[in-house]
């Protein structure tokens, strides 16, 4: 007969094992249009301290497509755009279209986690063409999804079973409070949670919270070497630009200031949610990810303000992660993509990566205890399909409807930021002694662009036509393979 004392020890040991094996919680914070190259993280000092210095800073994180809906779809599915089929922000381009709702949403990250016992929460901008009709999107136990694209006031949220309109509540603050309430409640239960918070900053219309208005009024947009420079070695849409007038540059400066000011509320959101996790004694068992869907340019190569281009301003995104097993102040130089987040999160949740996911987990990188994590060679795919059509014609600008240009506005001096054939695929190559990007455009010229980022970090000189023929052929072959890859064949 077993004695009472040994029995108590045995029970406590069993309870201890259960506690130690508890699956981690996951909090993903996704900003909108936040760059790295133009110091887009400058307003987020506390986020850098809590997540970057408290965990890992990634120095080469990239969007697979420099536009909102395709990038967000890639993050949720772990798939490149040529596989998930969302090519732009329109329903016809696959954004929250029938294919997403029928075929992809039931295979996306939130649904997988939910099916494995995770309590799931979403708050903020979901996909650009989500308008709150029908049932809550699959995979979410608690859903506060914004109707349409980012805005800061006068918006409607789908709050679980109903739609609620808000006139004067600042959206980032409301999302902070909704997420904090969820965390306080979720941490009382044994099941793990997955929470995704997607504030509108730093997307247009660039409206800061009243408490932050004017904080950066003294700041100008960064005058990079490419600022307001027209370069004739770029693809036709960029080289057709003309220098920006002073009035447009003043607008750029104002937008730059306001973009930074909108991010101050996001910084406060991060601090608040980390505080809730700490107060509920859940912080040490929670992975926290901070990233953005794509970058942004303001005046580079005389392009006023937008994304959609294959330059570092538009494709390089912030990525900071803290959580169990991640050494503070880790620096990771290995290239990663937003398509890698779903497989990584599944690895944390002890779930096998489905064969249809194109990304690969970087969980093992995060477990390295050295501050400068060993470097692994990687090639990533960046792809974009131009959105220009007859419907995108703007009669306020002088360009004819038949040109099928897009994103042409008088406030941007009618510089058109997109066109029907601004379509390209790029190989972002980060290897030992090599930091290059190679791009092929599907336009009338089959134009090529390539840059050596070690020698030319601002991408001033296109070296595509100076490469040795064998180099160009090898890049082209690798790029072709990536644009046709699926699942494990994307691991290069």
From TrEMBL:
This is N-acetylglucosamine-6-sulfatase. Keywords: Glycoprotein, Hydrolase, Signal. The gene is LOC117137133. The keyword Protease does not apply. It comes from Drosophila mauritiana (Fruit fly). Belongs to the sulfatase family. The keyword Amino-acid biosynthesis does not apply. Residues 1-20 form the signal peptide. Pfam families: Sulfatase (PF00884). GO terms for molecular function: glycosaminoglycan binding; N-acetylglucosamine-6-sulfatase activity. Residues 24-351 form the Sulfatase N-terminal domain.
């Amino acid at each position: 007969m077993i004695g009472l004392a040994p029995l108590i020890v045995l029970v406590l040991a069993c309870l201890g094992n259960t506690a130690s094996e508890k699956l981690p919680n996951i909090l993903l914070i996704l900003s909108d249009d936040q760059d790295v190259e133009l110091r887009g993280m400058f307003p987020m000092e506390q986020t850098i301290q809590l997540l970057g210095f408290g965990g890992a800073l990634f120095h080469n994180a990239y969007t697979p497509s420099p536009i909102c809906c395709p990038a967000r779809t890639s993050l949720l599915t772990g798939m490149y755009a040529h596989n998930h089929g969302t090519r732009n922000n329109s329903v016809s381009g696959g954004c929250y279209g029938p294919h997403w709702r029928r075929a992809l949403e039931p295979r996306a990250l939130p649904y997988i986690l939910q099916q494995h016992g995770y309590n799931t929460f979403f708050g903020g901008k979901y996909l650009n063409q989500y308008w709150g009709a029908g049932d809550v999107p699959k995979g979410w136990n608690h859903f506060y999804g914004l109707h349409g694209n980012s805005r800061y006031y006068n918006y409607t949220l789908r709050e679980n079973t109903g739609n609620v309109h808000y006139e004067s509540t600042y959206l980032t603050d409301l999302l902070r409070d909704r997420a904090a309430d969820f965390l306080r409640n979720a941490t009382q239960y044994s099941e793990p949670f997955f929470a995704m918070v997607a504030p509108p900053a730093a997307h247009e219309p660039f409206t800061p919270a009243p408490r932050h208005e004017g904080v950066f009024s003294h700041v100008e947009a960064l005058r990079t070497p490419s600022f307001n420079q027209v370069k004739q070695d770029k693809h036709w849409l960029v080289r057709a630009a003309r220098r920006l007038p002073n009035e447009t540059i003043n607008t750029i400066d104002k937008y730059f200031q306001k973009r930074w000011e909108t991010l101050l509320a996001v910084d406060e959101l991060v601090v608040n949610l980390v505080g809730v996790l700490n107060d509920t004694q859940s912080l040490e068992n929670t992975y926290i990810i901070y990233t953005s869907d794509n970058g942004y340019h303001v005046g580079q190569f005389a392009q006023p303000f937008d994304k959609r281009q294959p330059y570092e301003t538009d494709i390089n995104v912030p990525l900071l992660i803290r959580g169990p097993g991640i050494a503070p102040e880790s620096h990771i130089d290995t290239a990663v993509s937003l398509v890698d987040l779903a497989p990584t999160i599944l690895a944390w949740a002890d779930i096998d990566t489905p064969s249809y996911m194109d990304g690969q987990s970087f969980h093992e990188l995060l477990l390295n205890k050295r501050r400068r994590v060993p470097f692994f060679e990687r090639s990533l795919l960046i792809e974009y399909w131009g959105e220009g059509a007859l419907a995108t014609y703007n009669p306020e600008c002088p360009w004819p409807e038949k040109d099928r240009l897009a994103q042409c506005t008088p406030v941007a001096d009618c510089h058109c930021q997109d066109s029907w054939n601004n379509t390209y695929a790029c190989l972002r190559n980060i290897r030992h002694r090599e930091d290059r990007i190679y791009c092929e455009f599907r336009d009338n010229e089959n134009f090529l662009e390539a840059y050596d980022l070690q020698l030319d970090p601002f991408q001033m000189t296109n070296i595509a036509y100076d490469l040795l023929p064998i180099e160009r052929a090898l890049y082209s072959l690798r790029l072709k393979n990536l644009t046709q890859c699926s699942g494990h064949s994307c691991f290069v």
